Amino acid sequence: MLASTTAQGGTDEAPRGDPLRRWRWVVPSLAAILMLGAAAATWGYVEAQRIDGQVDQAMAERDNARRILQAAVDLESSSRGFLLSGKQDQLADYHAALQFFQRERNQSIASIDRGLNELRETSLVDALEVAIRTRARRIEHYASGGREAAVSGTQAGEGKRATDDIRRLVTVFVSDREAKIARWRAALGWRQTAVVILVLLGTLISIVALGVAHRIIRRRQRAAELARTASDRRGRELAALVEMSELLQSGVEASDVRAVVAHAAKRLLPGLSGWLFAFNNSRDRLDLAASWKGGDQPLAWPPPSRRTTSHPPNAGR
Q1: What is the DSSP letter of 24?
Q2: Which of 35, 52, 76, 151 matches a 20 to 30 Å C-alpha distance to 217?
């Protein structure tokens, strides 16, 4: 009869099922979130580039409108100075303004005129033509000897009214472009903020993904180590049983059998105390035949207080 008692500690049990199954959805989910974050960041970058282009175009149109207004003012003041003083050098700004209008007629002036048309305003081209014709007619009157008529027309403010109309149209256009610039810059600001938030969120998610992946890897390594340890233990137990079987088959003495069982028990039950009992010759009592990791145990079983008369098997036959 082989008896044993449990010592400190115990045996490791193989994990039931896969404890990491619930984590399998984490990595694909994080990957999908990262892809969405990257797509959103790309969209934010494209939108920022588009809005930057719109802002730059609006600023260029605003500045062109201001230059047109300045040229119109130069046209008026230069022609007025010539009509009042009769000095040819006063017409330098006048001719420069005419050249500017001719050069920009099909470019910046046409672009501003389209913008004013969207705002349901009168044509800037028409207002410029009125101002140019009025000033050219006054200068022709002056050159043909009609100085009094030219000066009186200038004092009547005919050219100034045309310039005021140009100033009003340019002011409306500039106000519209500045409002659009402010609106686009606000939109650009929140898009850039969204891009920064998405980048930070993607970085945070990447860190979390790395942490989760590290945890999963560590758990899998631990499970593999436990499985390898259990497999090694089972291998050692099987080797001990095979060795005990071979030694039992080769042993002939009872002392040899006891020594083999005790040696094998130490290998099969490490950390445990045990005893081997054998029936005495009368087969009414179990005597201690061998022990391991403890020797102060009772030398017979059952104890005298619980011992009863027993008959060996096949008695009386």
Answers
A1: T
A2: 35
Q: Which span out of 138-147, 253-262, 296-305 was modeled with the highest average pLDDT?
A: 253-262
In this model, does residue 12 exceed pLDDT 50? no
Q: Is 78 exposed, middle or buried (0-12, 13-18, 19+ CB in 10 A)?
A: buried
Render 230-263 in DSSP notation, one character per residue.
HHHHHHHHHHHHHHHHHHHHH--SHHHHHHHHHH
Which region holds residue 316: left if phi is over 0, alpha if psi is between -120 and 50, else beta? left
- Euclidean distance between CA atoms 53 and 64, whole angstroms: 16
**Strands ordered across the beta sheet of 300-301:** 2-5, 273-279, 286-292, 300-301
Cβ contact 287:258 at 8 Å: no
Mean pLDDT taken over the chain: 76
To 10 degrees, what angle do helices 26-85 and 108-118 make? Answer: 110
CA distance 208 to 30: 9
Report the alpha-carbon distance of residue 135 to residue 98 in Å, rounded: 11
Given a cut of 50, is residue 301 above it in pLDDT? no
Question: What whole-number distance in Å separates Cα of residue 36 and Cα of residue 194?
Answer: 13
Q: What is the DSSP letter of 297?
A: S
- Residue 195 vs residues 37, 112, 141, 204: alpha-carbon distances, Å: 9, 34, 65, 14
CA 63/CA 235 separation, integer angstroms: 88
Q: What is the pTM of this model?
A: 0.54
Give the pLDDT confidence score for residue 177 in this predicted structure: 92
Angle between helices 124-143 and 26-85 (to 10 degrees): 20
* Cβ 9 vs Cβ 194: under 8 Å: no
Locate 291 and state its tokens: 């022990």
pLDDT given at position 147: 58
